[in-house]
Amino acid sequence: MAHKSTPASDSRRVPTIEDVARLAGVSTATVSRSLNATGRVREATRKAVESAVRELGYTPNFGGQALALNRTNTVGAIIPTMENAIFARAIQALQETLAAQKVTLLVATSQYLPEREEEQIRALLARGVDGVVLIGNRRASSAYALLNARGVPFVLLWSAPDSSPFVTIGFDNSAAAIDVTTRILKKGHRRIGMISGLTAHNDRADDRVRGVSKALTDNGLELAPQDLVECRYSLAEGEAAAMQLLQRQPRPTAIICGNDVLAAGALRAARALGLVVPGDLSVVGFDDIELATAVFPPLATVRVPHRRMGVAAGEYLLRWIVDGKRPPSLTLPTEFIERASLGNLCDEAAD
Amino acid sequence: MAHKSTPASDSRRVPTIEDVARLAGVSTATVSRSLNATGRVREATRKAVESAVRELGYTPNFGGQALALNRTNTVGAIIPTMENAIFARAIQALQETLAAQKVTLLVATSQYLPEREEEQIRALLARGVDGVVLIGNRRASSAYALLNARGVPFVLLWSAPDSSPFVTIGFDNSAAAIDVTTRILKKGHRRIGMISGLTAHNDRADDRVRGVSKALTDNGLELAPQDLVECRYSLAEGEAAAMQLLQRQPRPTAIICGNDVLAAGALRAARALGLVVPGDLSVVGFDDIELATAVFPPLATVRVPHRRMGVAAGEYLLRWIVDGKRPPSLTLPTEFIERASLGNLCDEAAD
Q: Is ipTM strictly over 0.90?
């Protein structure tokens, strides 16, 4: 038993699976089958067990759960941050998919710190999670070694499968960035700046920068060092980065942003400088989170398959946990969303 | 032992605390002291243990951690949602406070569903968390019974202490709403509408509605049923709710919103109707999340003590877990943030 044991709880006896079985009038095997929702329990029985569980305030302890199918019915996810809702929709979809099978999702946030993510992987494994969800595919081999040493199923979201030996459920960040850049070039823009999230330890940000750079090079242009500013994913840092790009003469007529939060910051910078979007400056984001249509003008951006990644991660893990068969990776499409923040190059702006 | 056990891991032996002790050349007691960061271990020893842990891919199992101070060094938090970042900053602050003591935070989201929250409390207790953080103070007694049965320290954020027999770290939602309403009345507004989150199972939303209603009544006005629209906390639902309020003749000159997301939706509705904010309509939010200054005009709103609640929750729980002494509740101040979305009543708007 590893539940918290304080003076308070030492003074009372913790209910066991036997207590639940006795109260529900069934066998302990039936109780654990019922609690693990393996579906071989009649509804009436399940109800009896559930009411006994509630009445006794029983919580399956590690031993108990471990006996039942070697499962704890929890999955752990580690995301870089909960701020600006980048990962919220995918995590929501993941949780709903797992909850439908009575599996609980526990989330930790690493603040984009590889060391913290590794501590959290260790902590989740120690809590006996049945599966793990991570964001991105670039991290120290020691992190993967931890997961493999336990044989715990894990999937990597937000990145392209082909760049990882592990099961990845995501999209091609570089291809999406190439597509965005090509569209901006088609609108006549030639002076293009970029605001990116910090690329260290962030393969998604890095791949987006590579994509923009490649598209420019393929069109006889270049993403010069001074055309690229890296900063944290915050409105204030996005605004400051845009200010820096817009101080240059001649200034860029379009700014590609690593996500919608940075783009919202760029809109604020444009407003502060008296620049009209898109007349004087076009701004494009990435992610298509709710913020993209909360700002004015609404942001042209890249819609990432948030919900589909979350649902697929849940379905893949649930199957993998049960049958032990490693699923193939999955690449999902992204979609460019045309909105008012992207316009054709105006002559004034081009001067 | 409750770690996941698949064919893969069955085929290898899982490293034990004894293996770590042997490789590090120390006692198992030293290993567990070191892993639990109780500070009675020399740095060199800690380093030796940590490298052994890494080399072996050892993850403390429940039994092992349970032996060590009866602690798993994990705290669980259940928040209603990760969308629109309402709770993100407090959770971030909570996590940083815990991480400084090598305690990992695991977060679950209940989607504002009481039954799901109760399942998640049960799941967190089953994973052996040392402490629990919940949002709000109105829930079924069965949920509190679960926590009390285990004697696990828990704190309630976002609500006023005086309305709960448990340890609450939050603020007075009703008083904050009274303050907002009074300020709007001082600006000359008399036709005031409100968009609230769903008040069922949400004491914060409910208290904010009560506050607005009380302030209006105290000033000889009333919040009539048709002046109040409840909806989910989303931009689209906030926009639709504002449309509904703004269809009425005469239309309100000010709309108080239950949070900033709803207020951003109201700004979008005003724009769609060709109404100028604040000239034709004043809009006030609640929370002061990043979105409040991403929109235009920036939102007058109530700044909630996000970070202070998170830090206090972490410090209170860490102390409580160690000394077993239940801390007192804490009420923190909120602050009204004056921004351009709130203006004086203009004659045209009053007509």
A: no
